[in-house]
Amino acid sequence: MIKQALLALLLSVLSGAIYAQQADPCAGLVDSALAQCRGNQQTLQQQHLEQQLQQQQQRQNQLDQQQREIQQQLDDIRVQNELLRKQLEQEKSAKQPAQPPVQPPAADDSKRPELNSWKSDNPWFGSDYAKTEFAMRYAKQLQHERPDLVGRPFLDAVSAKVNETFAAKK
Prior knowledge:
This protein is 78% helix and 0% strand.
């Protein structure tokens, strides 16, 4: 029975030593061997941390590169959109029929009796700067909106708008 107890004690000590070595590989060592083992463990841990840091830096570099590529794609899309917008504006302006500009009264009005008649009915034209400027601008707008409106009906529409606008301001 003593042999069995001694054998059990010896087995427990051996298994404890083996377990201790698994948890701490330096367990069971003494003096310089212990110091060297612990130094090696610290070196291994430091190398492992440095390796993890390098991997994180590589991932960050990859993300930065992807972000630069995406930014470049966005810039390319913006440039393309701007070019398309300009092209569309050019196509729109090319499709619009050229409107003859509204001509101010010429010095020789004898060739345009409608205009002379209209001017005599609207003495403010040419003498009242604000009304005259408004009439000229509105005439351009009206000519663009209603190219079918010409002659005396066109002039009457301009004077009606001038009278309506300046009557409302008083």
